[in-house]
Each structure stands twice: as C-alpha cells, then as structure tokens.
Amino acid sequence: MGEDSHDSGWMRLDHLRVSLGALLAGKGEVSHDGKFIANPTADKRLEHSSMVATRAGWIALSGGVLAKAATIATRYSCVRRQGRSPLDTIREARLIDHDAQALRLLRGIASAYVLKLAGQWLLLDAALDRQPEWLIGALKAIACTISADLIEDLRRCCGGNGYLLNSGIAKISLDNLWRVTAEGDVQVLLSYAGRKMRELAQGSLFHEEDESSIPISIDLQARAHRAHEIARNRCDSVCDIVAARAYGEW
C-alpha cells in the first residue's frame, strides 16, 4: 500500500563495519572505545523539525487528495443515471439528484476546503516555530483520518466503478491510507496531545486574540463574504454553495 513512487524501503547488512570517519556525526560522535560524545553545539530543536514540517504539510495535502477524490465522485455522479426521478418520468435520475448521494459528495467537498485552509494557515501564516509540536501532530492525525475516511466513502459513492483502478479514485484511496499511521499514528498523537492539554492552564489554549492581528482571519472573512454572495446569486452551483459553507465554518 502507498504511493508507488515513495522511496522508503529497508536494507539488511551482514558483517559490515563502518569506520568512525565515515559517520556523519552531526549530533555527536563515538570514541574509539565505544563511548558516545554529544555535540554541544548541535541545535536540539532540529531533532524533530523535519518531522513537524512533514506533519504540517500533510494537513494541506490531505485536503488536496480529498479534493481530487471529490472531483471524480462528483463528476461520475453527474453522468451516471440510476433510479427513478419525480422530475423526469422518461429518463432515470442522475446519482447526484438523490439527496443521500448529494449529501455525501458535499461532505467531501466542504471538508477538502477546510483541510486546505487549515494547512495554508499553519504553513504560511501561523509560523511552525510558534506552534507547539503536539498541536501540529494532533491536527495531522485528525486531517489524515478525516481525509482517508471521506475518500473511501467517496469511492463507494461511485459504486462498482469505484473498485476499478482506472477510475482514478481507487488509487487515490490506496495511496492516501498510509498517511494515517505514517509520521505518527492517530491514536498515539491524539493521546499525546490530550496529556499536553491537561498540563495547560485553564484558558491558555483557546485564548482570545485580536482578529486584526491575524492577517489570514481578515482574508478569510473577505473570502467568506464573496463566496456567500456568489452562492446566493448562483444557487445552482454546488461548488459555490460548499465554498460559502466551508469558509463560513472556518
């Protein structure tokens, strides 16, 4: 499972000796008698920086792959006809005309907007070095889990076509599943975040801030207003309605 182009793998070495001079020794070195000597000039903040950055990037990435799956499922639902429609007694109804199908599609589209916005805020506006690593880990866990669950539901929205690899959505589901456990399992990350939150003083996590000091909040308010106006003037556009809902909820 996972992306075919991913270069992760494993290697087994037997009776191989690596000389001390060949070690990278960025954070420390090993003496000839086998003792580890830490590098006092090494920045300990770099130990988890790559992992934290990867987790933050996957939040936005989860929204991106979810958007792809939602696009495929929505397009398929617009052309596939099945079941009778009270609006057309001659032809069968499109899948998207069924309320249950439309609700599942809208859930995926709206969630894609929210995850993309959350990733954008974290990577571009919030500054990773100012955010606690447990909070980023919790957001990664939630985002990847929501994305994986909704992509699988969208795949099922395509019926038998969703099982075919050439449909596009089946491979998206398989390629995305590994992110739920990679770089931290969802249960581990959320449990760790819960312990950290219990250590916080009451009101210190969700403290009130002046929205004028947060540039993205002003931008999102403007976007929400524009999306709402578009949705009101073009009520037949599913994407515009979902955009207004997503920006409004955010």
Automatic annotation (TrEMBL):
GO molecular function, one term: FAD binding
One BP annotation, GO: lipid homeostasis
Name the UniProt record assigns to this protein: Acyl-CoA oxidase C-alpha1 domain-containing protein
Residue ranges of every copy of the Acyl-CoA oxidase C-alpha1 domain listed in the record: 49-195
Lineage of the organism: Eukaryota, Sar, Alveolata, Perkinsozoa, Perkinsea
InterPro entries from the UniProt entry: ACOX_C_alpha1 (IPR055060), Acyl-CoA_oxidase (IPR012258), AcylCo_DH-like_C (IPR036250)
Recorded GO CC terms: peroxisome
Domain of life: Eukaryota
